[in-house]
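PROTEIN DESIGN WORKSHEET
SECTION A - STRUCTURE
LENGTH: 432
TOKENS:
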């Protein structure tokens, strides 16, 4: 066990130290503000305070972990041996940066609690983030900093246990907004599809639509049986997130009362974990979230404890407080819909920290590095090669590689170099 001394043990301090030591590095940690206890400790120990007590492993502390409330923080990102870092320290510190305060700033999504310009949906956008502005959105800097800390600690304490390496977890996520492209929709939505195709002069879609509706062709987005066979073949256990909400301007799916839709969800729930893809309205209102969750729960007769937001996490404070109010314990929304990368600068699951009340919550957050919509800015081959590279660069076995696809991922829009084939190759890559 590593003993940490600080002049003041705060909720922020214990939260981020436990995240780095226990969840990232898989090393036990304890805390004390008693100098006598720290001095007498015979095992590995480090001090996190203003100045060293003696010749111990010392990291100078930034004020952030001892503050309360939310206030503007001055940040200057610089280069730490090819890894971006901030909160630079003096020469007496064993590390040149306060990685604990910096990690807390990123993981707590501190910047999202500050006043921001939002888009029409009220979303915090990737380009506004510190990570995007300083070109480390695709780098899990928190995890890399933690590994450097571990290496330094091993130099200082040679008997510190080493954690054996294993492949990080790959988690395929299937986000189902529309299980069908044409079938089982209301007459109004069918007309909208037709008029939209006419407006875009997309005559192929018009022909395809009516072939499907006449029963002459299978609906191209109804790929669930094929997905199940693929996941079974390659040994991947997917998580299915279904939009199960009333139709609104922002959420236009199949009616929750549609028999075929209900049967589909039940069939999938027999073989896989089924979770809630919460609507835009559910992210805004706790009551709507509760209704959607209860409706899905009654259908599959299983506990619904994991949620992903349809439009991604708009802002950390908005969506997560609703999840906490409904006593939901697992979230899969920490990422950007239209950008690839680590929104919280870590690939390791963590617990949401409530900055308004300065406490760790029970909500466990699973970072999602990419959404299918964000991958569309790349060619099909380049998109999946990027995912492979991101996976290979994960520095710890505790990392979580979550990627969200739609049920339409197997739709062959173009036969040559199709997303369909690249997706299969990607599943095969993780099966090796």
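SECTION B - SEQUENCE
RESIDUE ASSIGNMENT:
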């Amino acid at each position: 066990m590593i003993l940490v001394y600080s002049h003041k043990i705060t909720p922020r301090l214990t939260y981020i130290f436990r995240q780095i030591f226990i969840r990232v590095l898989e090393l036990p940690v304890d805390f004390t503000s008693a100098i006598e206890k720290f001095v007498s400790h015979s095992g590995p120990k480090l001090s996190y305070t203003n100045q060293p007590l003696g010749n111990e492993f010392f990291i100078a502390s930034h004020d952030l972990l001892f503050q309360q409330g939310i206030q503007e923080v001055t940040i200057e990102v610089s280069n730490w041996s090819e890894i971006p870092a901030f909160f630079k320290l003096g020469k007496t510190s064993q590390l040149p940066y306060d990685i604990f305060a910096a990690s807390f700033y990123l993981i707590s999504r501190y910047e999202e609690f500050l006043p921001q310009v939002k888009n029409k949906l009220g979303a915090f956008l990737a380009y506004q983030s510190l990570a995007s502005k300083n070109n480390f959105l695709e780098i899990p800097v928190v995890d890399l900093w933690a590994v450097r800390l571990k290496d330094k600690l091993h130099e200082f304490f040679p008997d510190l246990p080493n954690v054996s390496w294993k492949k990080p977890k790959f988690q395929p996520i299937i986000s189902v907004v529309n299980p069908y492209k044409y079938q089982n929709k209301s007459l109004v939505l069918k007309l909208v599809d037709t008029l939209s195709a006419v407006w875009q002069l997309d005559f192929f879609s018009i022909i395809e639509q009516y072939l499907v509706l006449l029963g002459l062709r299978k609906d191209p987005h109804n790929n669930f049986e094929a997905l199940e066979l693929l996941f079974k073949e390659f040994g991947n256990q997917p998580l299915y997130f279904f939009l199960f909400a009333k139709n609104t301007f922002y959420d236009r799916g199949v009616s929750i009362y549609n028999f075929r839709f209900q049967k589909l969800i039940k069939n999938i729930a027999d073989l896989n974990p089924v979770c809630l893809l919460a609507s835009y309205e559910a992210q805004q209102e706790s009551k709507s979230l509760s209704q959607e969750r209860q409706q899905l729960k009654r259908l599959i007769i299983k506990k619904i404890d994991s949620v992903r937001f349809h439009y991604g996490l708009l802002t950390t404070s908005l969506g997560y407080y609703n999840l906490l109010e409904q006593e939901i314990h697992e979230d899969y929304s920490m990422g950007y819909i239209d950008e690839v990368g680590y929104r919280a600068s870590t690939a390791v699951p963590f617990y949401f920290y409530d900055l308004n009340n300065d406490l760790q919550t029970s909500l466990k957050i699973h970072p999602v590095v990419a959404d299918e919509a964000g991958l569309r800015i790349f060619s099909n081959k380049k998109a999946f090669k990027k995912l492979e590279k991101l996976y290979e660069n994960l520095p710890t076995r505790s990392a979580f590689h979550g990627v969200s696809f739609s049920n339409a991922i197997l739709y062959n829009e173009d036969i040559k170099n199709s997303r369909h084939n690249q997706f299969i190759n990607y599943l095969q890559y993780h099966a090796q």
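SECTION C - NOTES
The chain has a mean pLDDT of 91.
The longest helix spans residues 141-156.
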